[in-house]
Amino acid sequence: MKYLDEFKDPVVARRMIDDIVASATRRWTLMEVCGGQTHSIIRNGLDTLLADAVEFIHGPGCPVCVTPLEMIDRSLEIASRPGVIFCSFGDMLRVPGTDRDLFSVKAAGGDVRVVYSPLDAVNIASDHPEKQVVFFGVGFETTAPANAMAVVTARQRGLTNFSMLVSHVRVPPAITAIMSSPTTRVQGFLAAGHVCTVMGTSEYEPLVEQYRVPIVVTGFEPLDLLEGVRQTVALLEARTPALSNAYPRAVAPEGNPVAKKVLADVFEVCDRQWRGIGEIPASGWQLAPAWREYDASLRFDVEGIRTVEPEACHSGEVLQGLIKPNQCPSFGTACTPRTPLGATMVSAEGACAAYYEFRRLQVPTKVS
Amino acid sequence: MSEPDLPVAPVLPNVPVLPTVDVDTASVDIESWTCPVPLRHQDRIVLGHGGGGVLSGELIEHLFLPALGDATNAEMRDAAVLDAPAGGRLAFTTDSYVVSPLFFPGGSIGDLAVNGTINDLATSGAQPLALSAGFILEEGLETSVLGRVATAMGAAARAAGVRIVTGDTKVVDRGKADQLFVNTAGIGVVPDGVDIRPTRATPGDVVLVSGFVGEHGVAILSLREGIEFGTTLTSDTAPLHGLVLALLAAVPDVHVLRDPTRGGVAGTLCEIAEVAGVGIELEESAVPVPEAVAAACAFLGLDPLHVANEGKMVAILPGVHADAALAALQAHPLGTHAAIIGSVTDEHPGLLVARSPLGAGRVVSRPLGEQLPRIC
Amino acid sequence: MCLGIPGKVVRIWDDRGTPMADIDFGGAEKDVCLAYLPDLQVGDYTIVHAGFALTRLDEESAVASLEAFRELGMLEAELGITFPSSDGAQPTGEPQPGTGAQPGGGAPRDEGAQTA
What would the mean pLDDT of B186-201 be, rounded to a whole number? Predict the structure, then answer.
């Protein structure tokens, strides 16, 4: 695939790795904010190959994982109702709520469907006027334009049977939360490239100023990630915290102005719970008053569902790099990839899930 | 109550190794299927077609016999009687097919039902002797749909040189099945000296795959409501017993064969590593992934290693025979793109570790369940 | 988060007033909404997420980045170990002890579109 495969070139990657390791005078602690980047780092083993120069703390950037338990429980309640077609991105179906997931709702007779795009859910609503079609609108700023366009399109088509359960999260407040912790160990950030294709880069300038921390907008292929790391390490070595763009083929400083305009119209900023982490002020988006008729929480009256997150989960501390996953008392006992308590165990690429697999590596397997 | 049964072909002669013909079963014209002789309730399947009476008889005579049988079909029996093979051991398998949609680029549920069961036999080292076919039909199913499926099964069986010798049909109330389900069972003969089973994977073995991975799963996904996309990919459904024969001729000491269907190559290798108590190392860049599979997996967020195949096998055999095995596979039309993709090790027992093109290893888990598109 | 994949615009059309495009990712084509990139032209590359084209891929910038990456470390390579070329040729030297040589060197995976 053009503009993808070239950025995986292992020979160039090895040279970039050598270059980074040679340039680092010490081991720097970086956070890649985005779960897609975590996935690529682990898949390509960049964390191991760069271990002499960089320690990665995997950020909270998987929207599926950080969706609060309460929101999952609301989705389960709505999806269980008769006459509802509940549509979702595929990765939400396995995320456990308090006592089940969307797959079990489907097995129990709920009409739960996987879609690739929110517009597919709108089309299902057009095709099934007798049903209430609900889309589970999760995601960061990258996904928000798609979800916003779903309600815009529903209104254009005059659909009264479409609504959205919105649980959007925003990156900059999460970085603020991590950096304002007095104990944080993060020294530099790889900002999420695809978030910036939408939002541009200006939101990060105040963060660089306030926390004196380099933030480098970074892509997802191995060479993109290495370039992001290379620039961050260079800024750290030079003691010149700055905002930089290591993904210029995709990210313009202004982002996507059309998308930003629609987002500003459809959504408004709200406080948001992050699973296992807690509430981060101004870190979410909800439907703005003019669009609230499409809010599934109101339409199905599930706002009363309030779920308290389990106290036994320490993923907030893991995300700040304060404890290693295996130092959490629930690790591997109450909390496993099959029974996750918090965001970092929900996703296969989450720090706790990754540790769980690693631990398996060290335990001899019984021969059948 | 007597059950309607499919016709039984005359008893097969004892053929330890059947001649195989690799033909493109997809080229059989099943689109224009028409009922050869008028059936009562011609357009739709009714409950009575499963009742064992006249309607059942008509279905067998006018639909199943022409589609599945051949010129020598004359009897109708609940069980086929086959001569016991003179040597070797029997392999016996069963599998059910519930794929949706019933027809897809490159094949149909009928092709899968024949080839899938042949492949379960073939990857135990057996050459197939005969198959059974059991149908569960939903009341109201269009007869032409059943006709197309049965025609595809007959064509696939003939192309593979394997007969469908017994069968059964049931009809369930509308809504209690999704159009039609097929179960096929198969028996085959494992030649003397062949010992193929997952527990034989041994450190020092190499891992081969017989061709491009991911084609079937991606072709099916491209038709799913809510996911649809355009692709020229077609299902790779194919019977593998000829390929197995060619491999065994070159390398008799094959340790493990598996067809990586659901769960894909990764699921299959994880399972082998677990049951054999060995580690398996996979060289990710060596796995033959067609560009279109890579592209579809990229935008859907799937791993080609987890995507289903229906005409591929994974072979594990001693490292010294690696080149001979690869040459034998590549010389066969179904193995042109075969590749050596990994090795068996005594490190990390029970685990599959994939090595990235950069050299770093990661543990690959079995896929939890169905492959679903993701956003992150 | 946020799987974003580059693809090429092959056709632009309209679905009930919503601008749409067929995007080719290399043998797999997906219909994608162009509401946020109304100026996109056939032949352009775009990054797609959840069925939406989010940004026009700047091809000049892509080429420039690749060239810069390829030059990185070249000097060290010339002074020290011989590194294989990065443009798809077979590796001519051992890239890095302990990390395992890769067959095929830097060639991107491309077995070509095919249909078995």
Answer: 95
CA B98 to CA B102: how far, in whole Å?
8
Measured distance CA(A170)–CA(A198) in Å, rounded = 12
The DSSP code for A290 is G
Is residue A281 within 8 Å of A258, Cβ to Cβ? no
Using a CB-CB cut-off of 8 Å, the residues of chain A touching C57 are 3, 249-250
Contact A302, A78 (CB under 8 A): yes
pTM (whole model) above 0.80: yes
Question: Closest Cα to residue B111, out of B73, B160, B177, B64?
Answer: B160
Q: What is the mean pLDDT of residues A287-301?
A: 97
C-alpha–C-alpha distance, residues A115 and A94, integer Å: 15
Q: What is the mean pLDDT of residues A126-146?
A: 97
- Cβ distance A90 to B277 less than 8 Å, yes or no, reads no
* Single-letter amino acid, residue B111: D
Give the distance from residue C54's alpha carbon to the nearest chain B alpha carbon, in angstroms: 14
A254 CB near a chain C CB, below 8 Å? Answer: no
Residue B291 has pLDDT above 90, yes or no: yes
Residue A364's pLDDT band (boundaries 50, 70, 90)?
Answer: very low
Residue B286 scores a pLDDT above 60: yes
Sheet holding A84-88, edge to edge: A111-114, A84-88, A132-139, A162-169, A278-287, A267-274
Interface of B with C in 270-329 (CB under 8 A): 283, 285-286, 288-296, 298-299, 301, 311
Subunits touching A (CB < 8 Å, at least 3 pairs)? Answer: B, C
The widest CA-to-CA distance across chain A, in whole angstroms, is 65
Structure tokens at B270: 């994880």
Helix (H) or strand (E) run with residue A343 in it:
helix A343-346
In whole numbers, what is the pLDDT of chain A averaged over residues? Answer: 91
**pLDDT reading at B45 higher than 80:** yes
**Helices of type H across chain A:** 10-23, 35-43, 46-49, 63-66, 69-80, 102-107, 118-127, 144-156, 171-180, 193-199, 205-211, 222-237, 257-266, 296-299, 315-319, 343-346, 351-362
- pLDDT at A252 exceeding the cut of 60: yes
Q: Indicate the pairing of strand B230-231 with strand C28-33.
A: antiparallel
Contact A187, A213 (CB under 8 A): yes
Instruction: Note whether C50 contacts B: Cβ–Cβ < 8 A.
Output: yes
A278-302 in b/e form (b: 16+ CB < 10 A) is eebeebbbbbeeebeebbbbebbeb
- Residue type (1 letter), B76: M
Angle subtended at Cα A253 by Cα A249 and Cα A255, rounded to the nearest 5 degrees: 85
Q: Residue B312 burial by CB count (10 A; 0-12/13-18/19+): exposed, middle or buried?
A: buried
- Helix (H) or strand (E) run with residue A245 in it: strand A243-245
For residue A96 the two structure tokens come to 């456990």
**Out of A326-335, B226-235, C69-78, least confident range:** C69-78
Question: Residue holding tokens 């590549």?
Answer: B330
Residue B252 sits at the chain A interface (C-beta within 8 Å)? no
* Percent of chain B's residues with pLDDT above 70: 87
Q: pLDDT grade, residue C95 (50/70/90)?
A: very low
Which subunits have 3 or more CB–CB pairs within 8 Å of chain B?
A, C
Give residue B77's pLDDT.
Answer: 63
Contact in structure between B170 and B225 (CB atoms under 8 Å): no
Shortest distance between the Cα of B285 and any Cα of chain C, in A, equals 7
Model confidence at B109, in pLDDT bands (50, 70, 90)? Answer: very high
Residues A250 and A200 sit within 8 Å (Cβ to Cβ): no
Give the torsion sign (CA, B291, B297, B303, B309).
negative
pLDDT tens per residue across span B110-155:
999 999 999 999 999 999 999 999 999 999 999 999 999 999 999 9
Neighbours of chain C (3+ CB pairs under 8 A): A, B
Whether residue A9 lies within 8 A of chain C, CB to CB, comes out as yes
Q: Which residues in chain C are contacts of B355 at CB distance < 8 A? A: 100
